[in-house]
Design a protein that fits this description.
The protein is of the alpha+beta class and 210 residues long. Helix content is 33%, strand content 28%. The chain has 2 domains: 137 residues, no CATH class; 53 residues.
Length: 210
């Protein structure tokens, strides 16, 4: 397979997003702040949102809209629930360019802060350009690519492990599994496993060296 993630970038933006279906679903329940920690397309054409909520917030959400709930996903003992609904322009744009969402945090009013990984710089530019053409007010907070700090890992190991970490591959519960992550990276699951295994071994060997 062709590796599609040769120059991954991490991007953070603020968007005035009145279209956000999750926001419009939460506001009548009195939930003004929430964190979307993953978005995925589905076979039905809708978007699945993994939403992190405090326990008292999760109790307010009707059970029929929750696909699956994971308890205690963070140090604050919050829960995360998959909610499937029609995606807004922002979510659809991010998903359509092969990006991984790290977080989508409601901050004030209709403003949502999005942090995501893109396969390359062109994908980042395409996402921003599409949103601006759709008349969204976008404020760029950060854009940058992974850079080695130790020189312990090979370039490929560093890139794959950084993407895996940011995409939630090492989280509990995992926000992405080896099959999905490998598919997005354009490599086989076996190759992904071997690269991560060798990279982690290098890191551990360096950490515990005498």
């Amino acid at each position: 397979m062709k590796n599609l993630w040769n120059q991954p970038h991490q991007v953070a933006i603020e968007v005035e997003n009145d279209e956000c279906r999750v926001r419009n679903m939460m506001r009548p329940l009195g939930i003004e702040q929430f964190n979307i920690i993953d978005i995925r397309g589905s076979t039905t054409g809708s978007i699945r949102h993994l939403v992190e909520l405090a326990p008292e917030q999760a109790k307010k959400v009707p059970k029929h809209v929750l696909m699956k709930t994971f308890e205690g996903v963070s140090a604050l003992r919050k829960s995360a629930s998959w909610i499937e609904c029609k995606g807004c322009t922002v979510c659809n744009t991010i998903v359509s360019h092969g990006a991984f969402l790290i977080s989508g945090i409601s901050t004030r009013g209709s403003v949502i802060s999005y942090s995501f990984l893109t396969p390359n710089f062109d994908a980042y530019k395409a996402i921003i350009s599409t949103l601006e053409k759709r008349k969204f007010k976008v404020r760029l907070l950060k854009v940058g690519k992974a850079e080695s700090r130790t020189g312990i890992l090979t370039e490929k190991q560093q890139r794959i492990l950084w993407i895996a970490l940011q995409a939630g591959y090492f989280d509990y519960p995992k926000r992405t599994d080896s099959t999905e992550l490998a598919g997005r990276l354009g490599i086989s699951p076996a190759t992904l496993t071997e690269i991560t295994r060798r990279g982690i071994r290098r890191l551990l060997s360096n950490h515990f060296k005498p």
